[in-house]
Design goal:
The complex is a heterodimer of chains A (about 130) and B (about 475). Chain A is α+β, with helices and mostly antiparallel strands. In chain A, about 20% of the residues lie in helices and about 35% in strands. Chain A has a six-stranded antiparallel β-sheet with strand order 1-2-3-9-8-5. In chain A, strands 4-6-7 form a three-stranded antiparallel β-sheet. The longest helix of chain A has 11 residues. The two termini of chain B are about 30 Å apart. Chain B has 16 helices and twelve strands. Classes of the chains: A alpha+beta (about 130), B alpha/beta (about 475). Chains A and B meet through loops of A and α16 of B.
Chain lengths: ~130, ~475
Amino acid sequence: MKVLEGLLYSENHEWVRVEGNKAYLGITDYAQHALGDIVYIELPEEEEEFDAEDSICTIESVKAASDIYTPVSGTVVEINEDLEDDPGAVNADPYENWIVCIELSNNSELEELMSPEEYKEYCEKEE
Amino acid sequence: MKNYDQLIFEISQEGRIGYRLSQFEDDNTNIDNIIPKELRRQDELNLPECSENQVARHYTLISNKNFGVDTGFYPLGSCTMKYNPKINEEIAGLSKFSRLHPYQPVETVQGALELMYNLNTMLSEITGMDEFTLQPAAGAHGELTGLMIIKAYHQKNGDYNRTKIIVPDSAHGTNPSSAHVAGFDVVEVKSNRNGEVDIESLKSVLGDDIAGLMLTNPNTLGLFEKNIEEIAKLVHEAGGLLYYDGANTNAIMGKTRPGDMGFDVVHLNLHKTFSTPHGGGGPGSGPVGVKKNLIEFLPVPIVEKEKETYNLNYDKPNSIGKIKGYYGNFGILVRAYAYIQTMGGEGLKKATETAVLNANYMQKKLKEYYHLPVDHICKHEFVLGGLKGDLNEVTTLDIAKRLLDYGYHPPTIYFPLIIDSAIMIEPTETESLETIDGFIETMIKISKDAEENPELVKNAPLNTPVKRVDEVQAARKPILKWEKDS
């Protein structure tokens, strides 16, 4: 299982890459492996607002449909539209293929997230 | 002919005719005078051209591929694929039931109304509720009906703030869907390791915006929700109502009743618990029962009895209205009635006891070879978590596919979501010990094959007309209908 340096991680197996006031959001290698082959991703609309822990998109795999919860609050400023045609890209490289980009409304929420080391430990416990 | 796999379009030959339609009486009639041009199809119809013999063979060969409870063991967890006694069919086929017209005057259908009235009483007794509607066409339709009743109740109380329904994360997927369709927002509560509602998590979401809670008991792991009375108390204190998803009623008949646990609204799946046929799209039946304070909201009409006469009462001003055409899937109601009558109260209780015994017997035998994440005496079903030791990366999907080779319908897989690599097995009460032992032996054999000959399992099924399908491509680039080469 791959955990990338320089990212923050949530307990629901999402990663966050912070760039200034914006955060790119995706799912981790652990998550894509658990989901299995992804066949559809329902993205939010740009300018939609979300509170932390809201369901921000739905990922459908051959096993199940799962909600993805945003660990941070804010407004969607960009969505990765490529995933609509090629949802399998998230399986192929979950860290390269971000899902949404959010303008953060509460930076302090980032402190709640895990470092790569903490996340690694967290996953080992989940096993 | 086991491998017959043609489409009706592929056996079509241009110009072959099976049936000749009669011509217009007056061949000179201008079709434009009968059906205006803008309402007529302009492109070719492209119907297959086959002889009657070809059509008969084609559909017979396809139907021979069907699998059902009449052909083999079908331990599809959460679906209660019990045997459907043939006497039910015979009763439902009686012409005085099967040849009725829904608009016949009520005095000419007293027997049918009496059956509905009595079924209502029986279901009320089994569940501990006060009154049922027999209209909903299946389980999820029952959920929608029940939630509309809950909404009507709050609105009558002027409680317009109650816009949220609580659903545990282990719930059937239909629960949140039905809540959305009924116009509610869904609040998810976490379940603990046993799939039971986490009381603290529940407390944290209860408030004056909560319309109700949807719950299955026993839950999706086949375990009884021990805290149900406390849960009911908490939800009621917060002003909400409790909805019982009756999917797992086969585990409780004659033992306990949702009405006694504190539920306000209940749906039953007659096509599961009460042995009416299902699988393949119905028709199902999902009657909804309520407590006294909700009777006024039930859909119209309700069958009522006055002295010795039965009537359809449409005069219920607070009713949520009609939820289905006519009175529900009447033929299914007849089958369920026949089932309850032939079984009797003791029989239903025995059915539940045997269903629970069968599930525990299988669970005990299989847990040596398969993960059993929640190791607990179960009710009518149990959930394994893939093979022990993750042998050669043989997955739950591979195991299910290999079962096809042995002539079994696989269990439910990858549900509930709270169990990794879930294999959900529900044997039901209608299987013999030999059948159950045969399935257990097969499951053990598959676990040994996974260790010694993993390719066999990973490439399964090998004996079926269609081999392993590419589910990923099928979902990503589905081909949903035949199209003529242009």
